[in-house]
Amino acid sequence: MVDRPYTLLSCGMSIDGYLDSPGIRRLQLSNAADFDRVDAVRAGCDAILVGAATVRNDDPRLLVRSPDRRRERLRHGLPPSPAKVTLTRCGDLAPEASFFTCGDGEKLVYCPDAAAGSTRRRLGPAATVVDTGPGEDVDVGRVVEDLSARGVDRLMVEGGGVVFTQFLTADLADELHLVVAPLFVGDSRAARVVGDGRFPWNPDRRAELVGVRQIGDVVLLRYALSARFGAEPSPGEGQ
User: Fold this and answer.
1) Alpha-carbon distance 8 to 52, whole Å?
2) Model pLDDT for residues 80-106, shown as the tens digit of each residue
């Protein structure tokens, strides 16, 4: 079996399973205490991965916010924040996005062979572009294999729905952190947590719920998705 990072998927959703609302640029599904929890989890990872749509729509910085956590990483010989990773089919990314301009850490962009050349020209020195081979979609199996070869032992995947679907249907996730916000979106135009696909967890193979935690007005559900879960404690998840 090919080595791959321990992979943790993290997301927030509405009660009815949506990631956002079509009427709001960025629907806030969490609260300050949960944002701090996510920051602690980030600080314990080697890389953070999001899809290109998340880079375009949310313009995330994907940095460790806490000065204490940044200093702790530096004490261990690590950069202040994890490396940043994104996946794109066509390379439609702006080098001015916060993903590329914020932080001094490594930025990696994975795309299919057909888009690799144009993506390198568009981004220039802002990121390292990695070719994942033929086909229209990014091969997430090759992504995690390459990340492992680059020394990434713990990967945090923060969305969006297309990326979650890719990792889950490929059975490449070890752990899921799912935060449920106390609201409904009620609009099928909005993005759901996952799309259609054949998932390893189904009525015949149920995911294992390993933790439930109330954090203010949201609830965190933790699921073990592979036998690798529990090999080491998840950062920021002390009960």
Assistant:
1) 19
2) 999 999 999 999 999 999 999 999 999
